[in-house]
Automatic annotation (TrEMBL):
Lineage summary: Eukaryota, Fungi, Dikarya, Basidiomycota, Agaricomycotina
Protein family per UniProt: Belongs to the cytochrome P450 family.
GO molecular function: heme binding; iron ion binding; monooxygenase activity; oxidoreductase activity, acting on paired donors, with incorporation or reduction of molecular oxygen
Name of the protein in its database record: Cytochrome P450
Species: Phanerochaete carnosa (strain HHB-10118-sp) (White-rot fungus)
TM region(s), chain numbering: none
Residues annotated as binding heme: 482
Amino acid sequence: MLDLPLSLIVFTVCAAALVLVRLYRSRTHHSIAHIRGPPAKSMIMGNIRDMAYQESVGDLDFKYMKEYGTAWRLHATFGKPVLMISDPKALQHVLHKSGYMYPKTTQSTTLAFNITGRSIIWAPNGDIHSRHRKIMNPAFTAPQLRSFLPLFRRSSAKLCQMWKDQILSRTPEGTTVVVNTWLARTTLDVIGEAAFDFDFGALDNTDNELMKAYENMFADSNMYPTVWNAIFQAFWDYLPDKVLEQVRHIPTREYRRMQSTLRLFIKYSQRLIAQKSAALASDKSSKDVMSVLIRANASEDARYKLSDEEMESQMSIMTIAGHETTANTITWMLYELAKHPDYQDKVRAEIALKRAEIIARGDADFSIEDLESLEYLQAAIKETLRYHCIVYHLNRMASQDDTIPLAYPIVSASGEMISEIPVAKGQIIMLNIAAYNRLPEVWGADAHEWNPMRYVEDKVDPQVRVGMYANLMTFSAGVRGCIGWRFSVIETQAIAADLIENFQFNLPEDKPEIIRVPAGIMGPMIKGREGEGMKMPLHVTAV
Ligand code: HEM
């Protein structure tokens, strides 16, 4: 804080005084007091520390959902009440039916700003966000994304070849491979080419500066927040935007890490946009996301255009949202297949049959339709997205008084059954993706088991439909749902099919205990060896 200007420090102190008054007032307006939940562990930290320090994402969420039902109350810093919801009707109401009525919290927006600048994920609800989304939508249509299939397959073929040449040629009996880092490098190259027609070179060169800047960024900047940082963030609600924009300059581990990565992305982004804008004047055919964006922006009415800063920021959100999420999903899927070898054999047999069909009809590779017809593979992807959702919580705030309906009534503190929850303006709501994805009422009594057969046997019969894909909350829902969900699903199908066709995955002999760490996004680490960063070692053998 020492190198912050004096005026900022004075302002922050005054704001802090204001905050204390407001906190006192807000505690007297406790509209969700009748909702049950665990007691706060501490006056200052509430239940925040417990949630952020869960050994594996979901440990507490699943416990509370079992005890209290699909909605419960937690306490954030200084006892601020937070409504947790995992009920499908409530999630649909907040994310979908209410449009922009439940904006992101100041904390979420400020962190999004720190990490991505003025990108779509930062964009405040309403006019600004819809302007971003309108310019970005043309880059994410189904035909546009289908055209990326050859790129996805080329990248996965490169990964397979590298594993064969660099690792397995020396150990034909197979060896342990840290699959998540290889997959993150592959998906980084994919997003580079698909989104910017840019070669990150991550598979070829591990020294690459963008790759290094990004590696373990989530764990370094988000995992296990310090008490001072949690307290500091509690004040953000009361600070004006201009002050919040300076938060990124605070010289501590969390903020420094985000700031240096963003700075690097903006440097590359500026260069790319300049090159592309010049090239697009003569060649209108480029299909990468950034070119589509530049074209859409150029043809937009001046009032709705994205500014230079907004355009530059999209590169960092697309890289951040678009690669490790998919890499981790494929990683968890390979892990589950290693734990379920019979199912893995079924997927491989199904792929081999389809390969024979493709050869017989004289085609060179799988089409989208071929991939989509792989029933066991599709089921494994859906089940992994359900079971190991990479984004596990989303924060929202009621912008006006409202009533949230529940599909599954809960018991209130006074023992009454309630099927709706009135919320006051300003109420913080945590949308619990991880818990909804394990709700027995939706997924069945075996919701806590990884069982892709539930899709094959068509056992999923949701009463309320939510989400962008497969009735899952994994890609969120509604106006701010994941714009890249289709991109991710096609990429996962393409890469996973190639890996399973070429390799057998088993758990390593020493069977390290893998935990799902809460690092803003959920990723794998080896229990007791968290200092090594995200890691999923699997025994890989060529087939
Ligand atoms: C398994 C993979 C993925 C998961 C689990 C995932 C999940 C999500 C979630 C939960 C959100 C909502 C975040 C919020 O409300 O704050 C989101 C938004 C977003 N995602 Fe994804 N995502 C994935 C892949 C991708 C890919 C591949 C791309 C781009 C190519 C992408 C781009 C975005 C963008 C730009 C947003 C912001 C949308 C907006 O605010 O309108 N995502 N994603």
